[in-house]
Predict the structure of Aldehyde dehydrogenase (NAD+).
Amino acid sequence: MRHYGHYINGEEVSPHSGEHFSTENPFTGEPWAMISRGDGIDVDLAVAAAKQAGEGEWGALSATDRGRLLRGLADLVREKAPHLAQIEMTDNGKLFAEALVQARYMSDYFHYYAGLADKVEGRVIPTDKAGVFTYTKYEPKGVIGIITPWNSPLSLASWKIAPALAAGCTVVVKPSEFTSASTLELVSLFEEAGFPPGVINAVTGFGAEVGEPLVVHPDVAHIGFTGGGEAGRRIYSSAASHLKTVTLELGGKSPNIIFDDADLDQALKGAIAGIFAATGQSCQAGSRLLVQESIHDEFVERLVAYVADITLGDPAAADTQIGPVANRPQFDKILRYIDIATSEGATCVAGGRARPDIGSGQFIEPTIFTGVENGMRIAQEEVFGPVLSVIPFKDEEDAIRIGNDVVFGLAGAVWTRSLRRAMLLTDKLKAGTIWVNNYRATSFTSPFGGFKQSGVGRESGQEAIKEYLETKCVWISSDLDVANPFVKR
């Protein structure tokens, strides 16, 4: 069984406590690796290494040289993508086909920010003060603490690491205790790519023992977090008490809205992709399917027929479409929400059962509920699994009202042939990403993040690098004589 240490200052190191914990393959249910159980001392060592690198060799590099290193890493990530995907699949049950696509796409993320590293420009400011030259410049915030979830560890770590390093920061990453292995495999590539020791560090373990010490550490300038709302609020509160900035990408309950003039064949695929891809374990899942009343029954019938043919099974198999739930606590949570939906009066028209006959039994059938009212818990709370709530609506105004009637605002989609309707809905829906006639598309070039309780700040695109930079304003006087020192100029 593989034993993973922390990755600190360019080396794999044993945990201070000497303790490890097992990580399980969700398809087989068997432990396959041992992960280091970190604590505050390990965090101190990692942060010290990151700080030293930022003040030393890494900080001395030009932005162009940082870009060169990131390009080399990007090429190495693409070369190692099959291995990284295999580890991710083993650790969290993601389909190998999707894990491989995501691992290869990570290379594009690093290439994009490699190119952006020396494109961060300040500006000259014409002020109202004569004889003064004023300009702005951007400087790295310093050590960045990154905390990632279990559903897409590699992708979500890269979304943060790439812009942070392009900005000139250094990083300490704490992956989920459920899925640490793929992140450890990723960070080990930095040494091979030629990065100075300490630029990237990883400390594994549990939230209270590693995450909290990282958030409150006095030498950590910014926290980047993806995860649940409750944990996000705790991190936000702790960071605020220490005057740290944060980037929080939290949950969603996104409306996937289908009008009666839509191409229903395409909308059907969009509805399926929105909720059942990645076993529904996606923050941007279209878990509320809003269907116009005039086509509601027909569309539900087509949905039910489609999911009847979905293949559950081994995530390594090419024909598998839905893999296992990533961990046992999440599996139990999804089943509880299925019971809650039934008790609230919703009707289960497809799925609704666990499948103990497949692999370890950590499988749940793709599940569809009708008769859902938007005030029900199943429509308001994030299930994070293959569970779809179908909600009818009358017209555009009704769709907008229902779509926005939730505390989240991460994403949404509109399916229509009407340009006017598409423009109206994209204006009125309160969410950070709106798709029209597609779902679940993201890019390294485009910002991603939420409104309301779906988060703070943006990842990806040019906006992301700004999260890791401080703005400095410089005033240079050309006057030979200083004005009255007792009067503000």
Q: What stands out?
A: The first strand starts at residue 2 and ends at 4. The domain at 255-436 is CATH 3.40.309.10 (Aldehyde Dehydrogenase; Chain A, domain 2). The chain has two domains: 2-250+454-473, 255-436.
